Amino acid sequence: MKKAIILLSGGLDSTTVSAIAKNQNYELYGISFDYDQRHKGELEVAKKTAKRFGFKEHKIIKSGVGQLGGSALTADIAVPKDKKIEDIGKEIPITYVPARNVIFLSYALGYSETINCFDIFIGVNSVDFSGYPDCTPEFIKAFENMANISASIVKKTGNKIKIHSPLENMTKKEIIQTGIKLGVDYAETVTCYDYDPNLGACGTCESCKLRLNGFKEAGIKDPAKYRIEIY
Amino acid sequence: MKKAIILLSGGLDSTTVSAIAKNQNYELYGISFDYDQRHKGELEVAKKTAKRFGFKEHKIIKSGVGQLGGSALTADIAVPKDKKIEDIGKEIPITYVPARNVIFLSYALGYSETINCFDIFIGVNSVDFSGYPDCTPEFIKAFENMANISASIVKKTGNKIKIHSPLENMTKKEIIQTGIKLGVDYAETVTCYDYDPNLGACGTCESCKLRLNGFKEAGIKDPAKYRIEIY
């Protein structure tokens, strides 16, 4: 069985990616990050997701990304709640965490070297997204190129590392439809930037808005728990 | 004054790089990593180095690199001491930390975004080195390319990020000569993989061997403290 590393946050996208990789018969290895994110509840969700999908191993890396500051997701800056759905993605928002995907993929690369794995999956998407520059296909390609130059397992084996981003060109609606076809239970996924483990998702941050819009366009009710009335 | 981020370990190379960047009139911002390295004493050395060179800021990031395992520098594998100087660099040794420079540069990139800095300095060298693939000019170029695609400050300003690796093509001898010309006190630098803050450097790991050979070729006595007799 071929190994795959999944960057797993327990959100809608990375859970769908787990289902896609599992469906492609990969043996799954998860990597999640404790980065002083305000929505730390997602780590518990990620653990449950890894269990549900039968991950062979799940690493939770204590990374000091929050020490860098500069983002509403880690520093003491409020998560904006007033964005209109049509404005999302037009400019890079304050929720952007500097170099987050670069750092996360770098750890995944280190992990791949220790378990001899050449397939790394990440749930980035540049259609219905917040406009983060580290979510684009150009970025993924440039990272993959750099990875193949820097990794000792490539030097030793001649095999190439592939960064898979199967959601890259899907709308949120298509991601949800793909996941449902593969049996994903979206009640168990957390997308919210301001998630409360007891009360549920906020329903008003841009991440919630993108998600809810995806379900609306798919004509499906979002089964997740929200702390405001959605339907 | 232009800002520069220096990847600072407190070793011979990164200290020389600090002197080079200071000499080029940059305002210095340091970033060091607590990565469960067995030679943790280097962090205290890095702090002193930052002070000596008048760094504006010095971040020590608690990173979970050691959680990935797989290296003699972090896991419970002995640091080899029996390598001959002429064999160093021929193959990737067990002291290679998977994706270490990728991860460190990624944090530096995040840091650069939060302080609006476009110049990142790293003391990699691919002449007198251990053969780590993440020390080569090809790697630095590929990382720089990826950084300029992923960083929001590039999107926002149109400026480019430059990864400076001024030691890239120098021999250890030339690095030492450059540093001495710039007033570096090498007594205050720690290179050893098995450093003991009280007793000094081991003198027998490959990192010590490369250093001692550099001083020998430069015809200078290494002023650092060793726990074995060197001269």
Would you give an account of this structure?
Two copies of one chain form a homodimer. Chain A has 231 residues and is of the alpha/beta class. Chain A has one domain: Rossmann fold. In chain A, 38% of the residues lie in helices and 11% in strands. Chain A has a five-stranded parallel β-sheet, sandwiched between helices. In chain A, helix 1 (12-23) packs across helix 7 (172-181). The first copy, chain A, starts with a strand and ends in a 13-residue tail after the last helix. The mean pLDDT of chain A is 90. At the A-B interface, strand 3, helix 3, helix 4, helix 5 and helix 6 of A face strand 3, helix 3, helix 4 and helix 5 of B.
List keywords for this structure.
homodimer; 231 residues; alpha/beta; Rossmann fold; 5-stranded parallel sheet
Helix fraction of chain A? 25-40%
What's the story with the biggest beta sheet of chain A? 5 strands, parallel
Radius of gyration of chain A, taken over Cα atoms and rounded to an integer in Å:
17 Å
Q: What is the CATH class of chain A?
A: Alpha Beta
User: Could you report the average pLDDT of chain A, rounded to the nearest whole number?
Assistant: 90
Which descriptor suits the 3D outline of chain A? globular
Q: In whole angstroms, how far apart are the ends of chain A?
A: 43 Å
CATH architecture of chain A, by name, is 3-Layer(aba) Sandwich
* Total number of strands of chain A: 5
Task: Name the strands of the widest sheet of chain A in spatial order.
Answer: 3-2-1-4-5
What's the helix count of chain A? 8
CATH topology of chain A: Rossmann fold
CATH superfamily of chain A: HUPs
Low-confidence runs of chain A = none
Task: Please write the string of helix (H) and strand (E) elements of chain A.
Answer: EHEHEHHEHHEHH
